[in-house]
What does this fold into?
Amino acid sequence: MKLLTKEQHKFLLENYQDTSALVLAEMLNIKYKTNFNTDQIKQYKARYHLKTKVRYKLLTKVQHKYLLENYRGKSVLDLTNMLNHNFKTNFTVTQINAYKARRNLVSGLRNCENGTERITNGYTFVKITEGWYPKQKMVWEQANGPLSEDKILIFADRNTKNCELTNLLVATKRDLAMMNGKRMSYSDPELTKTALNIVRLQQVVDEKEAE
It folds into this structure.
């Protein structure tokens, strides 16, 4: 039985030349929700005579030193964001994860399986390969696609642990600021929906009057 499907094999062919087996396994697992490990991908590549090109050095000496000073106690997602913020780079989580793995740099964080949930500051987060992801955003995006950067999600019943799709309302930061300013925060979902419609209508009125 072949390890990869035709579609997965095509994906591997498109990406293997400059990508390690470790990263390829992770990319496949993310894209196809599989559980391939590094050894399986190494053997598969060898069977089909697929050789990875010599990889360039990912980080500069300064960036490498910064990573060594900061990787302990940080998720790969947080570490990647820190590097990109401080050095104006565009590293991906996959690149930094592979870079750490090749050098046996362990963060010290407790390993959790993907799908594990934890609550931080009253909000639920779900473990994914890249780190911890807000559960409410994951639930909404699974049903509707990516949430645009100018939008946020609010909880209709004010319960931040209730991540049911029917309890999630899309709003803007301005919507939320106006609702908070008018003390229109309710545990009744229908009242919250009404409040959201009211502040949106008020914004339309304000814009008309400003013309």
Q: What stands out?
A: The first strand starts at residue 117 and ends at 120.
